[in-house]
Amino acid sequence: MPTTKRSIDKTDPRVVFGQQLATLRRQAGMSQEALALESGLARSYLGGVERGQRNIALLNICRLAAALSVPPSALLQTL
């Protein structure tokens, strides 16, 4: 039985958050690996967050914001 990929819902808050995170990460000139090291999160977890596959916890939002030197609200601006 062939597997089918789920279509990505562009309005899903996890997807929107992940896109904003990726945008801010790129603006900071950081790779996923660098952000993962700076924030103390696993790179594979960070990749899942950016793809909208993970439902990120508030504590991790704060860790990522600190690593990017932005307020946590900057990660939620597009929601």
Blueprint (SSEs and pairs):
Elements: H1 13-27, H2 32-39, H3 43-50, H4 58-68, H5 72-75
What percentage of residues falls in helices of 4 or more residues? 55-70%
CATH domain fold name: 434 Repressor (Amino-terminal Domain)
Average pLDDT confidence is 93
CATH architecture call: Orthogonal Bundle
Radius of gyration: 13 Å
**Secondary structure category:** mainly alpha
| Strand segment tally | 0
Through-space gap between termini: 37 Å
Tell me the fraction of residues in β-strands, as a range.
under 5%
Q: Name the CATH homologous superfamily.
A: lambda repressor-like DNA-binding domains
CATH class: Mainly Alpha
Uncertain stretches of 5 or more adjacent residues: none
Major β-sheet profile: none
Order of helices and strands: HHHHH
Number of helices in the DSSP assignment: 5
Number of domains: 1
Shape: globular
Describe it.
This protein has one domain (13-75): lambda repressor-like DNA-binding domains (434 Repressor (Amino-terminal Domain), Orthogonal Bundle), CATH 1.10.260. The chain is built from 5 helices and no strands. It has helices at residues 13-27, 32-39, 43-50, 58-68, 72-75. Helix 2 (32-39) crosses helix 4. The protein is globular, with a radius of gyration of 13 Å. The mean pLDDT is 93.
Overview features:
434 Repressor (Amino-terminal Domain); 58% helix; 79 residues; mainly alpha; 5 helices
Give a short synopsis of this structure.
The chain has 79 residues and is mostly helical. 58% of the residues lie in helices and 0% in strands.
